[in-house]
Amino acid sequence: MTGNIADKQLSKIVLKGFKSIATCDLELSKLNVLIGANGEGSP
Known about the structure:
The protein is mainly β and 43 residues long. It has no helices and 4 strands. It has one domain.
C-alpha cells in the first residue's frame, strides 16, 4: 500500500437542501463521530 492515510480521509462535508437541513458546512478532523436521530453512530 502506498501513500499517506491522511490523503484518503474526508476533510469536509457540505449539505444543502437535504431533508430538513437547509445548509451544513462541517470541517472534519482525524476522529469524528456522527450520531443520527435514532442514536446510531458511525466513527
